[in-house]
Every structure is written in C-alpha cells, then in structure tokens.
Specification:
Length: 508
C-alpha cells in the first residue's frame, strides 16, 4: 500500500476543520481513498481470504474513547491498513468461495459512490424526483431482461422497488398479503393465518413471518427429499394446505425459492402457484442468488411459472455486480404493498403525491428514508450492457462446471447434489475413507473428516469455503461468483483441497 504523507494543515498541534465538506479537501482525500482501494484490489490475493484474527482483536489495538482533536486521513488510513484489514474477510478475493458471492464491480462501486456523494433521501417523489424515476425505469429494464411477465412492470400495472435485503422484501410482501387477507376475514383472525415454506427456505423468512405477527405454530415447514433434489413437492404443499383448511386455519403466503441457499434447489413455480391460486394465497419467489442467472436465456426456464406469483425478488448485490445492498423486488399489485405500508403525515404532503401521478417509495418499504440505490443498477446495466453481464455469469457457471468435473473425476470425492448454477456441493466420499481404514467408516466419520477439511482449508488463508448439511450429510459448498475469480483460482483451490484431503485421509 502507498505511503501517506501528512497534509500541512495537520502539522500544527491543533487544527480545526472549517467545514465537514470542504470541496478541495474532499477531492484530495477522495483521490487518496480511491487510490487506496485500487491498491487493495491489486493486492487482494496477498491477504488471508478469511480473517484469521481472534475475537476482540480490535479492542487491543484501538483506544477506548474517541479522539477530541482531529486526526489526518493519512493516519486513519494507516491504522485501517494495520488494524482493520487483518480483521476483514475479503469477500472480493478471487478465492472467496464461501456462502454466496457478494460481487461488486467498478460500475457497482461507482454507483454507490455517486449515491453516497449526492446523499439524497428519496422517500417520496418530490424529495428527489430523479431518484424515484430512475428506480422506476431501471426496475422495468431489469424486469424485462429477466422476461418477467408484464404484470410485474410499471408499464403493465405492477412495479419494482429497491430494498436493502431479501428479508425486507419478504417482510413487506408478507405484510401486504396479511393485511389484504385480514381485510377479508377480520383483524381478529390474525392467529389463523398460515405461511408455507420448505425445509430449504432461507431462515430469513421465518424471521419475517415472526415480525409480521404470524403465530410460529402456523409456520408450515414442508420437508424436501433427495429424490426431488430438495425442491418443494407440490403434493406435499397441497396436503399441508388441505389439512390447515380442514383445521379451520387460513392459508396466507407461500415462499418459493429459485436457488436455495444450501444447494440451489429450484421449487416448481408453476404447479405451486396453481395450488396457491385455488386457495387465494400470496406466492413470493425468492431468487436471491440464482435470479441474476435468469438474464441468460439458457437459465430463464428456472423462472417458468413466475407469472402465477404475486411477488419476486433477487439480490443484485449477490450476483449482479451491484455492491451491497441492493435487493430488487417486483410486485404485481403495488396497491397491496401501499395499503400495508403507507403513511400520510402532513409534513410530507405535496401536490405531486396528491396528483397520484407519482410513486412515493416510502409506501413500498418498511423504513421512511431510503438511499438512491437505482444509480448502482443504472451504472451496472449501462457500463457492462446485457452482453457482458451474461458473459460474467456464464463465465462463473463454466468455472463451476470445470470444478465439478475435477471433483467428479477424482474417486476420493463425490458430488452431493447435482449442480444447477455456479455452486458445487461436494465432499470426501465414504469410499475414499473406507480405502484408508481397516474398519468401515460411519456416516459420522465421513461428516467429521469433511468438517476437518473445511476447517483446515480456511485456516490456510488461501481459500474460504463454507459447508452445508442436507439429509444428514455434511458437505462443502464451492460457490463461484467473485468479480476477480478466474480458472487459475479454481485450479489452485482444487489442488489445495486435494492436498489437505490427502493429509487428513492419511491421518485418519
Ligand atoms: N434467500 C436466499 C435464497 C439466500 O441465499 C439468502 C442469503 O444468502 C437470503 C434469502 C437472505 O438474503 P438477505 O441477506 O438479503 O436477507
């Protein structure tokens, strides 16, 4: 990293800033920070991917109270490099294969910088018309790119909104569905409302349902099986709904997933939406990670049936190169959201709102204030164009296919669940263990050695991977999607995995 020379203003013992936003100082420090980050990306492979610090690392390095006198940015950046960087897990590292990607890009970063730079608060149209209108436009662009039905677009009577996270998208649509149903059956019947999910649905959904006031005993967690590749079985959904209706309960909301977190299972949207329609239920489709892939025609079929859903969301900050946070939510009936989430304080009253010609996004989300997130998507879509965005995604999928082939060709390993996108689920196989042991190893032994493998790989600092447990099987998740990841990093990771597995198998 570059060396930092202290600005002359700070050579005096006491120096007071004249303004918190002096344009020349902003320029100087801004350049310095961009240079710092460019160096960071250039050198990112030198850092341990997963932070190796012990708990309370920072406490021992930083003072226990805030400075009274100002400090120069040069000193702050020096401390950042010395104390903060070791405590970072480098999500943009090309060897970060953990969880799901959280990919940024030059365009996503610059969109974020512009948004923060303007720092407008676009809660209603009048508070910054361009913030709202750009969001309307990019959400229709993106919706068209995904070939969402016209009814999800502003141009077709629906519309999209940028929220922070999928959990917020789930909560706001659940509130819309809840209030819509309670208007029909009466507020006192909230205890009868039932929500449906699978045992693979992201845990955020249960949190959202809890906040929305659904009785936790009315969370129907439907089991999935290996035979169905861990996707929701429509017959099981129907049976659960029928049992609830017979028990006097009211089916409300089903959360389907395209690309589950553990293994990227895809729920069959068409059949599920057909059942939900019979019972007047709301269906939300959570495609947090995999949704982005559906801009490629070869993956679009995973969204077949979405036309029957009420809402659809994906995280553009995961695999659409728009830095955190940027959850895209589309709804068919914005009025349901608005009825549940709108507020009409006198202080925000204005002619544009009264004219009903504009969108006031505060009524489409939980919080009032909101950031100008649309800039990120606008820059990403314009800077890369559909052609490059498809190329980036296909590149990741092709690398995952390459990794999958390496695993499949090696007898010591096995693929645990068939790959659909850029996540490969694998483990050291039971047969590899049995070759090394005199007595047959148990499933627990196999799980344990795989757990040790993940731990030793991550402790090496060269890669970061996380695990999952499905059907009692502990497996390793290898998720590709980093903006800097290339075949070289995938091959290096594979060599490391084989070496660490060899050492563990020998010692077993
Ligand atoms: N849904 C799925 C399928 C996910 O994989 C994740 C996170 O990885 C989430 C929801 C949660 O997303 P968020 O953190 O945006 O709430």
């Amino acid at each position: 990293m570059g060396s930092f020379n202290i600005h002359p203003d700070f050579q005096n013992e006491f120096s007071y800033a004249t303004s918190p936003l002096d344009p020349e100082e902003f320029r100087r420090q801004g350049h310095m920070v961009i240079d710092y980050l460019a160096d960071y990306y250039q050198n990112i492979e030198k850092y341990p991917v997963r932070s190796q610090v012990e708990p309370n690392h920072l406490k021992s390095h930083l003072p226990d109270s805030a400075p009274y006198n100002p400090e120069p940015i040069e000193n702050i950046l020096r401390d950042l490099q010395k104390h903060i960087i070791p405590g970072l897990t480098h999500w943009q590292s090309p060897s970060h294969f953990a969880l799901f990607p959280c990919a940024t890009s030059t365009a996503g970063f610059l969109g974020e910088v512009l948004s923060t730079g303007f720092n407008v608060v676009g809660f209603n149209w009048i508070s910054s018309p361009a913030a709202t209108e750009l969001e309307n436009i990019v959400m229709d662009w993106f919706g068209k790119l995904l070939k969402l039905p016209g009814s999800f677009l502003f141009s077709g009577g629906g519309g999209g909104v940028l929220q922070g996270t999928t959990c917020e998208a789930m909560l706001s649509t659940l509130a819309a569905a809840r209030d819509q149903m309670l208007r029909k059956i009466g507020r006192n019947n909230i205890g009868k409302l039932v929500v449906y999910l699978s045992d693979q649905t992201h845990f955020s959904f249960q949190k959202a349902a809890q906040i929305a006031g659904i009785n936790p005993s009315n969370f129907r967690v439907i089991s999935t099986t290996k035979d169905d590749e861990f996707s929701l079985c429509p017959n099981s959904v129907r049976s659960a709904i029928i049992a609830d209706v017979e028990g006097g309960l009211v089916p409300l909301y089903l959360c389907a997933t395209v690309g589950t977190t553990l293994s990227t299972a895809v729920d069959p949207l068409g059949p599920i939406c057909n059942i939900a329609e019979e019972y007047d239920m709301w269906v939300h489709v959570d495609a947090a990670y995999a949704g982005s892939a559906c801009i490629c025609p070869e993956f679009r079929h995973f969204l077949d049936g979405v036309e029957g859903a009420n809402s659809f969301s994906l995280n553009a900050h995961k695999w659409f190169f728009s830095s955190l946070d940027c959850c895209c939510l589309w709804v068919k009936d914005p009025s349901a959201l608005i009825k549940a989430l709108s507020t009409k304080p006198e202080i925000l009253r204005n002619q544009a709102t009264d004219s009903k010609q504009v969108v006031d996004y505060k009524d489409w989300q939980i919080s009032l204030s909101r950031r100008f997130r649309a800039l990120k998507l606008w820059l990403v879509l314009r800077s890369y164009g559909v052609v490059n965005l498809q190329k980036f995604i296909r590149g990741h999928v092709n690398m995952a296919e390459h990794f999958e082939q390496l695993v499949a060709m090696n007898k010591r390993f096995e693929i645990v669940v068939p790959r659909k996108f850029s996540l490969v689920c694998f483990r050291i196989s039971p047969s590899a263990m049995n070759q090394n042991c005199k007595i047959l190893s148990t499933e627990e032994d196999v799980n344990l050695i795989n757990q040790k493998l993940v731990e030793s790989l991550n402790a090496s600092g060269h890669v970061y991977m996380t695990h999952g447990v499905i059907g009692g099987i502990y497996f390793i998740r290898f998720a590709i999607g980093g903006p800097l990841t290339d075949y070289r990093h995938v091959d290096m990771a594979w060599t490391l995995i084989k070496d660490h597995a060899d050492a563990l198998l020998k010692a077993f």
